[in-house]
Amino acid sequence: MHRIAGLHSLHQCPRLEALEQTIRRFKLGEVDANEGANAVPSIQDFVNKLHKINQFLDQQDRQDRETLQNKLTYDLQQQRIKAMKDFMTNNEDQHINLRWWNGLQNQEAGAWLDAIPKIDKLQMRSSEFRTALRYRYRIAISAIRAGSRCDCKVRMKQPNGSFVTCCPPLDPYGYHVSTGCGKDGLRIKTHDALVSELNDIIRYAGGNTVKEQRHCFGDHLPDDNHRPDIAIINPGAFDIPGNKALLDVTVTCPLEGAQTGKISKPTKTDALKKVSTSLTTVYRNKINKYNKVLRNCAEVSPDFNPNHFSIFPIAFESSGAIHAESQKFIDSIVEKAADITRHPGNNLVMYFKKKISVCLQKNIARTINSRVGRIMSHQDFRVGRDFADEIIADEVVKSNY
Q: Does residue 70 sit in the same domain as residue 212?
């Protein structure tokens, strides 16, 4: 139908109609040769029109083939995805994989894979890229030795109900060292890198910001040491109510147990959620923390107006997902930047999504590589008693010879 409609539109071309009418009149003797030469379009024009017809037909053939191929590929892909999800849903041992997999079903989590490394902030080292891929697809970090323990200290609950401070075991995927271990200051570097990236975006959109503003509530709570990661001094530029907008950034692992190194198995209900319980919890905790501070200010100063402050937690999963409200706030800032710079809004949103995504995954990969390398270099003194089956089997084989 597209081809027939296209040919019909070409047939209605005025130049072709003029050509047909002139040839018909010339055959009937109604025009002489000189008039016909002046009235008939050039042969080259006629050839060009035929060439355009052929191009149109070729283009329609390609579109028909691509449409059919795309449809078949999409249908097969959806069948494989459904089979994968059904397998993970119906097998309790796969609920961890299902929870992690659901966290990747969004544009933000995979934006770093689409980034073209034209500038420094969109580039990653080969070692970082390999580690980031392993982290994304839950492939064990090859440098982590089975049975290893971290050199940090955590308070862990024992089966008898008591608590003991000890070195937590290292999970093979790097969840503990990337989000649960604060040693060497590498986890906070990931946080600080995201804060700097967001601060640059806000300033690019015309915002006046202060990072980690001291005495933010000093007029009302002189002894309060809360320092928001970013304070926007001119929130009206982004149609935000109040005199100051406070941003607090946090990164969490979508799987429970990253701090202790013992990843707990989620329930089927939690595993099927689009948003992990961890992401929802950290976002709500940030809101509650600042609401409590604002209530304390109101109790101390009767003239204090909590509406002068707007709170915006920016919560990330280490898989790359962003809380919906956090993403909504970032998009509103980027849209304002598009109005100022007159760049296409969708292009600018995707560009900054990629920058944030690359920043997060690059720093997580750096943290894993650095912490694992440091721990493994001193691991002879911290090998735990939990060994993998293949190690035990290997020792049994050696003892038989």
A: no
Using the predicted structure, report yes or no on whether residue 1 has a pLDDT greater than 80. Answer: no
Do residues 152 and 286 both lie within one domain? yes
In a domain, 171, yes or no: yes
Instruction: For 279-303, write each residue's pLDDT tens digit.
Output: 999 999 999 999 998 888 888 887 8
- Are 335 and 246 found together in one domain? yes
Residue 77 belongs to domain spanning: 2-85
Q: Find out whether 170 and 150 touch, Cβ atoms under 8 Å.
A: yes
Distance separating the N- and C-terminal Cα atoms of the chain: 77
**Strands 154-157 and 163-166, bridge-based pairing:** antiparallel
DSSP secondary structure string for all residues of 134-188: HHHTTPPPTTSPTTBB-SS-EEEE-TTS-EEEEPPBPPTTSHIIIII--GGGHHH
Eight-class DSSP state of 249: E
What number is the average pLDDT over the span 315-336? 95
Residue range 163-193, pLDDT digits in tens: 888 889 999 999 999 999 988 899 999 999 9
Q: Are residues 61 and 128 in the same domain?
A: no
Top pLDDT among 1 and 305 is at 305
Number of domains in the chain: 2
Chain centroid to CA 31: how far? 71
Same domain, 146 and 294: yes
Same domain, yes or no: 64 and 184:
no
Q: Are residues 164 and 16 in the same domain?
A: no
Which whole number is the average pLDDT over 144-157?
A: 87
Torsional sign, CA 144, 147, 153, 155: positive
**107 inside domain:** no
Tally the C-alpha atoms within 13 A of residue 81's C-alpha that lie toward its C-beta.
10
> 219: helix, coil or strand?
coil
Predicted TM-score (pTM) of the model is 0.76
Residue 400 lies in a domain: no
Query: Which residue type occupies 75?
Result: D
pLDDT: which is higher, 392 or 183: 183
SS3 of 284-334? HHHHHHHHHHHHHHHHHCCCCCHHHEEEEEEEEECCCCECHHHHHHHHHHH
The reply to whether 91 falls in a domain is no
Q: Do 52 and 175 fall within a single domain?
A: no
